[in-house]
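Spend some time on this chain, C-alpha cells included, and walk me through the fold:

. . .
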Amino acid sequence: MAGTTAIEWADATWNPVTGCTKISPGCDHCYAERFSERFRDVPGHPFERGFDLMLRPERVLQPLGWKAPKMVFVNSMSDLFHKEVPFRFVDKVFDTMERADWHVFQILTKRSSRMRDYVNRRYADGVAPTHIWLGTSVEDGSRRSRVRHLQQMNATIRFLSVEPLIGPLGQVDLRGIAWVIVGGESGPGARPMDPEWVREIRDQCTEAGIAFFFKQWGGIRPKSGGRDLDGREWSQLPFELPRVAAE
C-alpha cells in the first residue's frame, strides 16, 4: 500500500483510505476494486473487507518516514474526498502533507466539488502549498464540470487525469490547469480509446503550453498497447521538480 509503484507519473503510493463507491461511468471497471475484491474474506489481509471504504489512521504518518523525496500519489486505492471520509480525517492527511514538504503529493478525485470546498476553507487566505498538487478525473465530455470545480480551487498546481478516456472530451477550458494526463482503460472488458480523442487533447495542451503526459493505450493489460503517440512518448511534467533534501 506504500512505497514503489508502477504508475508512470509517480514514485510511490500512499493510502490512508482504501475502498470507494462508483460515481460515474469511468468507475465501471475500476482496477482498485478488482484488485481489492480478490482478497475479500481472506483473514488478516489488508483487503479482508474487499473494497469497502475504510479509514487507515495507522498510515497517516507514513510519508514522514520516507527520507528520499518522492512523487506520491495519494489514495491510489480510494478517493480522499469520498463523502464518507470525515473532514477531520482529511485534516490529518493534509497536516502530514504540509509537514512532509520534501515530497510532492498528487491528490486525484472525482468528487471535485467536495475537494474545492475543503481546499478553499483550509487555504482561505492563500493557496495550497506548491508541493500539494490537486487534480480531478474526467473520462469524457459529459464530466467537464469537474474542470470548473478544479479551476475554482485555491490551488497552486492543478491537474487533470483524463483516464480512462472513454469518449471524446471536446474543447476544454484549460485556464489554470498545469498538467493533463491521458490514458486508456485496462483490464477485462476494457473500452477502446479512439486515437483522435487523444490527439484532440494533446493539441489543446500544446497550443496552451500545458504539460501533457500520455500514460497508455490500455487493453487487457495496462501495457498492452504501449505509450507511443504519433512516434513518440509524451512524459511532460508541470515544471522541473524541486528535490529538497529531508533533514
